[in-house]
Amino acid sequence: MLHSYVSTPLTHYMFFSLLLLLGCSSSPTKVAQTVDPVTNVADNGDGRDIRVSFTKSADETEVREYRLMIRKTVNASSFDLAGANAVIVANYTTITPTGSDISLTLPANARDIQGNSISNDIQYRVFVLTVANGSNIELNELSAASNTITLTFAVAPVVTSVTASDVAENGNGGDLQVSFVRPADESAVNEYRIIVVKLQGSAGFDLSSANSIAAANFIRVSKTGNNIQVALPEDSRDRDGELIQNDVSYFVFVLTIADGLNATVNALSLRSNAITLTFPTAPAVTNVRAFDVTNHGNGLDLQVSFNVPADESETLEYRVLVVQSTVKTNFDLDAALAAGSDRVFVMSPDGLNKLTVLNANSLDTNGDLITEGLSYSVFVLSVARDIGVFSTLSVASQEITLVKTNEVMTLTDLPAATGGVDVDAQGNVYVTDIGAAPTRRGQTVYKVTPEGVFSIFAQGGGLLGASGNEFDSNGDLFQANIRGNSISKISPSGVESTFIASGLASPVGITIDAGDTLYVANCGNNTIQKISPSGVINQFASSSLLSCPNGIVLADDGNFYVANFNDGRILKITKQGVVTLFATLPGANNGHIVFRDGLFYVAARGAHRIFKINMSGEISVFAGTGVRGHSDGTALQATFSLPNDLAFSPAGDILYINEVEPTFGSANIPSKVRMILIQN
Asked: Closest by alpha carbon to 485, among 465, 459, 468?
């Protein structure tokens, strides 16, 4: 007989009570405990490096399996039971209950829950999902997260204080001593390898480079328990396989080789000091220069200068050797050492750079008297003091041919004309009166013929403190007025008009480019002003290097060069107005500057000399002894008195200079016009 079943609250209660009596519990399985510690146990760079330990469930009768799940720490906090239940089988490790707590190493192909291979340098946490019997995933339970673990390779310790020293004179690896401080703990060290790397090409040398070097190209050193100091074998090679030798610059590195047990990764030291193996020498002198200074036609015409080394302790003497240019190509250290005592000029070391004139009977290395018309170069031999120390030969000076030198003469005396100097196309010289407050206003421009006859070219008007001047392409003379803060324009017939009436500050020097644009040196505010042919003023340059800019000239390189009055500096100003130091003259109080045939000529008021400067900034004396006076003669024997401005004749064979007549004080009246006759 069939009976229908009617569900009521009472019947539900009775059903679940029966289930409890039968032992069919609906409570979840007890979770596995303490996923800790998780440790890094190997150096494979995969799952085999991770060892996991955890406490089993207290009651495993309802546990089907455990699942080890690895999750990146960066998002581990959001991992929960639902997420664990959803992980696919390829992305966890299954463990069957054994009745004991679990400790195991993961397989090499273990993956994190996102399917990524386990790898170094990523932070992970491990979870254990306890999976209940049956198919109800709601009965599964998830453990707390383990400690954080980051897999790394164990690295051998690095040595420190790697030092390289030159300790012998073999000319090979036997000269190179290497020392370094060992690590405090050498238990993970198998050996050390000394690697010598050329300085040139050392950029980018790293651990990978060091590990790949062939065995023949490094030096093995066993650990001793002490710091290491070792001289390398004579046949040692650098990392490129080339024998270590003199005159090549090197760095030294030390590679620590791991023992493979406590450490598996080698370690590379920092580089040593740079070292170049050399033999001890009497150091060579530098900057050897030769100058033609007089007109004797022998060694007295030849002036030699050079810079001595900072350390002269190994130097016995210096020998100056004059070599004919036709044989200088083959002149070397052996030839210098073989030169007889009658063919050298000897100088003793005294800590000072040398400047000397040779003797009338000085010979060149061929045994011939030094004379005009032959081309020479000068060498200086540094002779070693002791046996075992090497003498050295300098680089050759520039080639020089002795010729008749320049002559200084006086063209004329003038009442007062110590301002500017310029020359017109016909060779007439225009010299100005700068004045002297309060009595003389400086309102005269004199015209002097090539024969020395002078007359007044312009006077009065807007002239006031007539200083620097310059002709434009139309033959008009532009005259700076230092006391009037203005510029006058004087026509070829001597008619003066004001070109610029304001906007200047004690203008002195003027230079004019091919487009008739003026560049004016303002002593009063340390600026250079640019003035268009129509009179529009703009500031061209300003710098703390400018200190009462006096003379200014435009050179062939398109840059401007300025002589400061307040110091001895010559400044270079680019087309963009950038100011840099070009050269510094002795004596301070520079006058004006001119440029011709690749050379600058500067009237050095304070030094009573005319200096010559090449485009590299090398300075030499062109005229004047440095003693104040008015004596004529050869350029380097003549004397000057506060020379101020200077200008070349149209042919470039005469350099005109004005100066103060007195030879004492700073009075600027009366004055003289001097000329240097230039011998070509």
From this structure: 465
One-letter amino acid for residue 242 of the chain:
E
Sign of the dihedral through C-alpha 412, 485, 545, 571: negative
Residue with tokens 């050759």: 396
Query: Average pLDDT by consecutive 10-residue portion of the chain (680 residues)?
Result: 33 34 43 74 86 91 94 87 95 94 93 93 93 89 92 90 92 94 95 97 94 96 96 96 95 95 88 92 94 84 95 95 96 96 96 94 97 96 87 96 88 95 97 84 96 96 96 97 97 97 97 98 98 97 97 97 96 98 91 96 96 96 95 92 96 95 80 89
Strands (E), 491-575: 496-500, 507-512, 518-522, 527-531, 537-542, 549-554, 560-564, 569-573
Q: Which of 446, 436, 481, 434 is nearest to 461 (CA)?
A: 481
Q: What residues have CB less than 8 Å from 587, skipping those under 6 apart?
A: 568, 604, 605, 606, 607, 608, 609, 626
One-letter identity of residue 101: D
**Distances in whole angstroms, Cα of residue 18 to Cα of each of 4, 14, 21:** 20, 6, 5
Are the CB atoms for 580 and 543 separated by under 8 Å? no
Nearest-Å Rg of the Cα atoms of the chain is 46
Q: Cis ω on the peptide bond leading into residue 37 (within 30° of 0)?
A: yes
Q: Which residues pair with 51 in a beta bridge?
A: 39, 105
